[in-house]
Specification:
Blueprint: E1 2-4, E2 7-11, H1 12-20, H2 22-32, H3 44-66, E3 71-73, H4 82-97, E4 102-109, E5 113-123, E6 134-140, H5 148-165, E7 171-175, E8 181-185, H6 186-206, H7 224-234, H8 245-253, H9 259-263, H10 276-295, E9 300-302, E10 322-329, E11 337-345, E12 350-354, H11 364-384, E13 390-392, H12 396-408, H13 412-420, E14 424-426, H14 427-434, E15 435-437, H15 444-451, H16 465-478, H17 481-514, H18 531-548, H19 558-569, H20 572-589, E16 606-613, E17 617-623, E18 636-640, E19 650-657, E20 662-668, E21 678-680, H21 688-704
């Protein structure tokens, strides 16, 4: 966004930024009008992301050329004058009229909107003003999952492209960071893109742009320090831990705009738009944070006991316990790279499983070897001490174990055994569900104040996950061992901190017991599952061996190749079911207020209101923060209940409005259970018949051959 010839020029990135944060638009507008300067400091992570984006784009250009396509690159306009943009657009139109297969860095400018599409792709099955051909839009994106802003940006390019070729594009293609080409219809995004653009231009005209509020974009925003300083100066409600934006809005409408004002209120004085449980939680959280400001000393309080949550997730200490942390680079390779798996034992011995090799250009083999060695180590320690557990903080570690075992198709059974046995213990869940802390953030570096007497200082070469990634990227370029040493020191400190946290939590558990509380230790799961499943796995493995026993490794006949493929397919249903059950239990373990980011689920639910009833059922309406969700009317979903007692209750969704934030559930009139705090997908369907049919086919081929 900038002013040129007294006119405001805006771009697709300005529009997507507006949808992420309206205050970002305000700041950009002030820069454009000369009212403030853009921050001079450039975050190394932001630079890293930008460079990876450039590299990803360059690789795709080369792939297009390797396909034999003619590629015309448009020179980027220099400066910000309108004449330069019009020249670049004229060059773009000339390349299109000449029939180039690909127009790279196509420029559009209509006097207000400028755009630079990565690629225009020629197609000869549609005519346009250019002749018997037309162009579609394609863009490269580092992300492996496409979000709305990417399509919005491309739809804007499509609208500008239509002005040049006389017809709109039909397709929008996104080339993701893992080289997938995802195709969407322009017509599906056109209306939303135009509505968003109209709203953006209206807000620019009337100046009614929202105040800043923390969101996901803050992590990559150059203005985050500016906004943080403002929140602290204003004592913003956003500083209260786990404050939702819709709650902050409701509080502000009731005249409560600061942490101090919230701390001074009783729960019943808060508006009804903030649910009953949230009113109590937020007022007490504000009081604790305000008290630490005044005294300078951190404090905590115990949350009410819930069966199977909080301190009841904490297993008894064992000599074989391990403390685990991973360092991963989401930009390396096509699927990211877990480059360090760190493990600390109770004797203080640290083991680094490095997923990188200084002698290799491609690090995938090193990652695989490190992953296998790590899983083998965890499995061996567990076999020697079945009472041991592996402690970590937040869900990243088990998520990556599951993801890599499935993607690499190695150690799947071993990872499944560790998960079934409940070997991995998330201390974040213990903290989050068992304690209320006087901190605006419950990150482990903030929680360290309770057991180290201070929060983690940023005085090391590597002091957070972002700096670890930047250091590893530098190592990829230089192979400087000192960089790996810095990363290892950081990872080891995280593992040590995890052990110190576990010990501190044990002390808090003892304190809670001394107050008269009744607490249970969690029961270990069954690493092998049911006897029936174990027997079925044994039969499947035995049949697989019979099918491949006489097959050569290479040079197989078509019949032998078919037999080999059948043998590999015998375990397909088991692998798919394993991933589905892992996801099911992951969602069940989440607290309700973390469901907002899960499109397969819905939550947190608040404010139950009876809106209808008949002889067999009642219709209850619940509020939730507006969110993207796959929950739809007519489907059944499982309840997330306040107490994790293993009970599984389902309800039918009668109506749902994800934008307005309400859902109506049909529940049995005699249901004795608490109201749900969230909705989860039901357990995966049985695939027993499919497995049996495939096994029967395998037996037939093993006995009689393919014919």
């Amino acid at each position: 966004m900038y002013e040129s010839d007294a006119a405001l020029v805006v771009s697709a990135s300005d529009l997507t930024g507006f949808l992420e944060c309206e205050h970002l638009t305000r700041l950009s507008l002030e820069v454009a009008r000369g009212l403030r300067s853009r921050p001079a400091a450039v975050d190394p992570m932001t630079q890293l992301v930008a460079q990876h984006g450039i590299d990803h784009e360059a690789r795709h250009v080369q792939r297009l050329r390797d396909r034999g396509l003619s590629v015309v690159e448009i020179d980027a306009p220099t400066g910000k004058d309108a004449a330069g943009l019009r020249r670049a657009q004229a060059d773009t139109l000339a390349a299109m009229r000449a029939g180039a297969d690909v127009v790279y860095q196509a420029t559009f400018f209509d006097g207000t909107w400028r755009g630079h599409a990565d690629f225009l792709l020629k197609r000869t099955d549609r005519a346009s003003d250019l002749g018997p051909w037309a162009y579609d839009v394609a863009d490269t994106k580092l992300a492996r999952r496409i979000k709305v802003p990417a399509l919005l940006q491309m739809a804007l390019y499509g609208d500008l492209l239509a002005g040049l070729q006389g017809v709109p594009p039909e397709l929008l293609t996104v080339v993701t960071g893992d080289q997938q080409e995802l195709v969407f219809r322009y017509s599906d995004a056109e209306a939303y893109a135009r509505a968003a653009r109209d709203r953006f231009q209206q807000r620019l005209a009337d100046g009614e742009l929202a105040a800043p509020y923390p969101n996901a974009h803050c992590g990559v925003c150059p203005w985050r320090e500016t906004c943080t300083a403002r929140w602290e100066e204003e004592d913003s409600l956003s500083l209260v831990a786990f404050m939702r934006r819709d709650h902050a809005t409701a509080l502000a409408e009731a005249g409560i705009t600061t942490v101090a004002e919230l701390a001074a209120r009783r729960p019943e004085e808060l508006p009804d738009a903030v649910g009953r449980t949230s009113r109590e939680r937020l007022t007490q959280q504000a009081r604790l944070q305000l008290a630490e400001r005044v005294t300078g000393a951190p404090s905590y309080e115990f949350l009410p006991r819930e069966h199977g949550r909080g301190f009841e997730l904490l297993p008894p200490p064992s000599r074989g316990d391990l403390f685990f942390d991973i360092e991963g680079d989401p930009f390396a390779g096509d699927a990211g790279l877990e480059y360090l798996w760190g493990v600390l034992d109770t004797a203080g011995e640290f083991t680094a499983f490095w997923g990188c090799d200084p002698a290799a250009a491609d690090q995938s083999a090193a990652e695989r070897a490190a992953f296998e060695a790590l899983v083998d180590h965890l499995s061996a320690v567990h076999a020697a001490d079945p009472s041991m557990h592996v402690f970590h903080y937040a869900p990243y570690e088990p998520t990556r174990l599951k993801t890599l075992s499935a993607r690499l198709q190695t150690r799947e059974a071993e990872v499944d055994r560790l998960l079934r046995a409940d070997v991995l213990v998330d201390l974040y869940a213990v903290v989050r569900q068992g304690l209320r802390l006087s901190k605006a953030s419950y990150s482990i570096k903030q929680v360290e104040d309770f057991y180290r007497g201070h929060t983690r200082a940023h005085d090391e070469e590597v002091s957070d996950a972002g700096e670890s990634i930047v250091a590893f990227e530098r190592w990829l370029a230089t192979r400087d061992q000192a960089l790996l040493d810095q990363i290892e020191a950081y990872n080891r400190d995280d593992c040590v901190s995890t052990r110190e946290l576990r010990d501190w939590l044990e002390g808090r558990r003892t304190e809670l017991l001394a107050s008269g509380a009744l607490l249970r230790r969690p029961e270990d799961g069954d690493p092998d599952g049911s006897a029936e499943n174990a027997a079925a796995q044994g039969l499947r493995e035995e049949l697989e061996q019979r099918l491949v026993a006489d097959l050569p490794d290479t040079g197989r006949t078509p019949e032998q190749e078919a037999t080999w493929l059948l043998a590999q397919q015998l375990g397909w249903h088991a692998r798919e079911a394993r991933s589905a059950w892992w996801e099911y239990f992951r969602l069940r373990d989440l607290p309700a207020d973390e469901l907002e980011r899960e499109t397969a689920a819905l939550g947190p639910l608040e404010g139950p209101e009876l809106v209808g009833a008949d002889k067999r059922s009642q219709h209850w309406r619940y509020r939730f923060p507006p969110q993207e969700t796959k929950v739809s009317a007519g489907s059944r979903f499982e309840h997330l209940l306040p107490a994790a007692d293993g009970t599984r209750i389902t309800s039918s969704v009668v109506e749902v409005d994800p934008t307005a934030g309400w859902v109506v559930l049909s529940r049995g009139s005699s249901s004795p259970h608490d109201h749900p705090t969230g909705l989860l997908p039901t357990s995966p369907p049985s695939d027993r018949l499919f497995r049996a049919a495939l096994h029967d086919l395998g037996e037939q081929v093993a006995g009689c051959g393919v014919d």
